Amino acid sequence: MTRVQDRNASAWLLPPRPGTNHELRDRMRTFADAEEVDLVVVGCGAGGATLTQRLARAGWHVVAIDAGPFWDPQEDWVSDEAGSHHLYWTEPRVIGGDDPVPLGSNNSGRGVGGSMVHYAGYTPRFHPSDFTTASVDGVGADWPLRYEELRPYYADIEAELPVAGEHWPWGDPHGYPHRPHPVSGNGELFLRGAEACGITAKVGPVAIANGRFGHRPHCIYRGFCLQGCKVDAKASPLITHVPDAIDRGAEIRAESMVTRVEVDDRTGRATGVHYVRHGRAGFQRARAVAVAGYSIETPRLLLVSTSRRFPDGLCNDHDQVGRYLMVQGAPQTAGRFDQEVRMWKAPPPEVSTEQFYETDPSKDYARGFSIQTVSPLPITWAEHMSAQGHWGETLRAYMSDYVHWACLGALCEFLPRPENRVTLADETDGNGMPVAHFAYSQCDNDRKLLDAAQSVMEEILAGAGADETATIRRYAHLVGGARMAADAEHGVVDGDCRTFAVPNLFVTDGSVLPTQGSANPALTIMALAARTADRLTSGAVVP
Ligand SMILES: Cc1cc2nc3c(=O)[nH]c(=O)nc-3n(C[C@H](O)[C@H](O)[C@H](O)COP(=O)(O)OP(=O)(O)OC[C@H]3O[C@@H](n4cnc5c(N)ncnc54)[C@H](O)[C@@H]3O)c2cc1C
Ligand code: SF4
């Protein structure tokens, strides 16, 4: 493995004090719409930014187009829950199904860096079993590639973020480049409760610098990771991949909403993307196109991009686009302790267990869940307690008691189902594009996992000495919607993230995941994009 700085100098291209390298952005190369670039990427988040950086390094002419702003953390972000709503994708979307998933702050970001700008920072790997759940567990789907093919890319991205944590005993056991962070009251109680219950819990894995990394400073443990880390200690593509991409000649075109992918009916090849920037329509010509707009916006864009060849949506010959969209069931259980916990005084991601990740044949459900520390700030804490039915005086009493509570969150592996999907609604947005309709319903296995995860969290908190617990059931992490598969009848892209229908069109974001495990997805999304980049630059895949 090469030194990180030799393959990705992003952390060294930031200013020595937290801030934006304006000189780098000012000298960014730009491309004219009429110039046929090698690749145009839609969305500059986890998948899009990683692909852009890799290909720019290899000398490709790349334009990454993002609908949101090119953030300046010092100017645009605040250490305040209410003041951070502009980080979320809040454009209209319609939800439905038996168990509708609320969209917005908990689900997707907008702007250069994507959702990782306000993600928590957990970066676990998927387990090898996640790639073969259909053949081994009889549920979900098998991927067209195996864990081993992703392993080197996991290690590369872990070094580039970088990830801190204890040696990881689950899945494919591995270590991390940075040592584990010290833990706060919340993390200590999780470790103590887990030990009392005979459960193994470990510190990490988090993409938060533990010590100086390039010009990025050490975490200062103030706990505003979900509001955008102004310190630059928490990784997001805005600071981990975009600076190097620009330095190597990529253009990041912010505040530009892509409205359609154009395909030449005659050749069957993508020719570029239409976008709207500050009210002006443009068309960026490109030899190849990659869509990486997140699990809702990617299928939406494909479905909107109809043509004579694709009357039902781009790459939708087999009615696969938008299907198998997944969320993880994410119940959060809080426990009250006599002593003060002050759970907000640390990054929310600290300690996790993956002991319940795999299928346990003694249970009446398949697959499993992970458990992690979460540390709701006051507004989210008010949601947690009001969900118990508390209001008025009692809610005020619980808010005043905030200092005494610790909180754990589970990620349950909800199963992929074809009817959980994105379609187009009748409503349109400001650009005249039909908005996404997202229907979601749980299955019995999902509900059993929720119950099991909640009771383990209650046991852990009781084991640590909690005298009261309260649970709120939530969702986290949308993935799927343009999944990879062995053939066109079962998915939208192949194992290289290339669409089956259009040879020079790729999907390189979380939409391609066929299963989700009970791991947080960002690291896997980046590793898959890095692998696709390798396949393209090595010539193994020719667009
Ligand atoms: C509150 C929260 C906490 C999370 N915590 C974790 C965590 O701890 N660990 C973890 O692994 N994951 C976490 N996640 C999830 C993780 O951030 C996402 O799964 C991941 O960033 C998705 O990557 P992506 O490439 O699919 O999309 P994104 O990173 O969301 O990037 C998509 C980009 O595309 C742009 N875009 C969309 N449509 C268009 C269009 N038509 N034209 C132009 N641009 C467009 C958007 O502006 C966005 O910048 C969290 C997410 C949230 C919201
Ligand atoms: S706790 Fe650390 S990683 Fe989180 S926002 Fe503060 S400095 Fe950044």
UniProtKB/TrEMBL annotation:
Keyword line: FAD, Flavoprotein, Oxidoreductase
Record-annotated Glucose-methanol-choline oxidoreductase C-terminal domain positions: 416-529
GO molecular function, one term: flavin adenine dinucleotide binding
SUPFAM superfamilies: FAD-linked reductases, C-terminal domain, FAD/NAD(P)-binding domain
One Pfam family in the UniProt entry: GMC_oxred_N
Oxidoreductase keyword on record: yes
The Glucose-methanol-choline oxidoreductase N-terminal domain, residue ranges: 109-306
Family according to the record: Belongs to the GMC oxidoreductase family.
Protein name: Choline dehydrogenase-like flavoprotein
Taxonomic source organism: Georgenia soli
Lineage, top ranks: Bacteria, Bacillati, Actinomycetota, Actinomycetes, Micrococcales
